[in-house]
Write a structure and sequence with these properties.
The protein is an all-alpha fold. It has 17 helices and no strands. It is a multi-pass membrane protein.
Length: about 400
């Protein structure tokens, strides 16, 4: 019996783990598939577009050649052209004129663009040019941004659970260390002896039947019939509560014997897992200073790794770029030379956005609590003023 029950327990635990991880895997997989489909779509639409030389581009080239021909050997005269005329000419130029669509909109470039769309970063250096691409970009963002927020909320629950458990473990360890320092050896040994004596006196007996319980209660026979009935009713309720545990085991046997009912139970469990999304972030209560320290260390790790393939970046520039990315500001002033390598950093971006999201949520909760305290103080002050006025009028 023990050998047959062990594989069944292993199967049930595996099923529980699978159905617990199923919603998280569904969200992440759906986001990955959505990103890959968007990359294929935009690489086909924007990468295969025909490059036409417009009239504006021709006038730009004519003005540029005119300025270069008028350059003289005098350096002071050329400074005016280099400082004013040429920068003004390039400011009016369209960046699309200098982009090769096949190179910019390959699969990795399109995938990088899709990640900047549904993460709402939007650096601005890559954007659709064709009218169909613009319409599809709006439609893609309309469904991609809610999906990304759903993944962020779901992963935020996991991170919030890990952070809260780590923080609680740290507080428990801190309290134990403080208790061991404050508590002297003699008092602690006395407390341990008292606890051991109290535990040794506790005897766990088997539950009695109703008849044995009635026979053991001699005081019941002496009392009036009314009180006897009340006590008997209380005993019956207590006996019924004791029998509820086997009933649950019987229901578990029915679940295991009937596969249709077991299927319904697993479906309801999955629905419960979907309903729990976003609850752990609301429960999280850790100091904001700790969250700021976690964000600083997290961005510092990326800022140390990113300059290895982005040669034009140093640590400070990479730190600035990661902060602007994780907070979804995305100015676009810092450009990546190798966006395909940065795509391997996409998991880092998602986890970092989770941490920043949790920090913002904690800050929001602290501000709301602060406003509530201020309102309570204002309300109590108003009550005191009204009491003083009432006392003054009564005099």
């Amino acid at each position: 019996m023990a050998t047959t029950s062990q594989p069944l327990r292993g199967k049930t635990t595996c099923k529980k783990i699978f159905w617990a991880m199923f919603p998280h895997a569904c969200f992440i997989l759906s986001l990955v598939i959505y990103a890959f489909l968007g990359a294929l779509m935009f690489s086909h639409i924007e990468g295969t577009r025909k490059v036409t030389v417009s009239e504006e581009y021709r006038t730009f080239l004519q003005n540029l050649t005119y300025l270069t021909r008028n350059l003289s050997d005098n350096v002071t005269e050329n400074e005016k052209v280099f400082k004013n005329d040429i920068p003004e000419l390039f400011n009016r130029a369209d960046p699309v004129w200098f982009i090769n669509p096949e190179e910019r909109w390959n699969f990795f470039g399109s995938l990088f663009f899709c990640c900047t769309v549904f993460t709402t970063v939007g650096y601005g250096n890559t954007y659709p040019v064709t009218r169909i691409g613009k319409y599809l970009c709006m439609l893609y963002a309309l469904f991609g941004i809610p999906l990304m927020f759903l993944v962020l909320t779901d992963m935020g629950d996991i991170l919030a659970t890990v952070l809260s458990k780590c923080y609680n473990k740290f507080r428990e360890l801190q309290s134990k260390i403080l208790a061991s320092k404050l508590c002297s050896g003699s008092t602690c040994s006395k407390q341990n002896e008292l606890k051991s004596r109290a535990q040794s006196k506790i005897v766990i007996n088997e539950p009695l039947t109703i008849m044995e319980l009635l026979r053991s209660q001699s005081g019941m026979k002496r009392g009036p019939a009314k009180y006897r009935n009340v006590e008997l009713f209380e005993m019956l309720i207590a006996r019924e509560n004791e029998n509820t545990q086997p009933a649950r085991n019987k229901s578990i046997e029915r679940w295991s014997s009937c596969p249709e009912l077991a299927r319904e139970k697993t479906v309801s469990r999955v629905i419960e897992n979907f309903d729990k999304i976003g609850k752990e972030v609301e429960k999280l209560d850790v100091p904001i200073v700790l969250m700021v320290l976690v964000i600083f260390l997290y961005i510092s790790c990326a800022a140390g790794i990113l300059p290895r393939w982005e040669k034009k970046m140093d640590f400070q520039e990479a730190f600035y770029f990661c902060f602007i990315t994780l907070t979804t500001i995305g100015f676009g002033d810092t450009k990546l030379e190798h966006p395909k390598f940065f795509l391997f950093f996409s998991l880092y971006i998602m986890i970092g956005m989770e941490i920043v999201f949790i920090a913002f949520k904690l800050g929001q909760n602290r501000l709301i609590a602060l406003y509530k305290k201020d309102q309570d103080k204002c309300g109590s002050l108003e009550e005191v003023r009204w009491e003083h006025r009432d006392s003054g009028t009564s005099r």
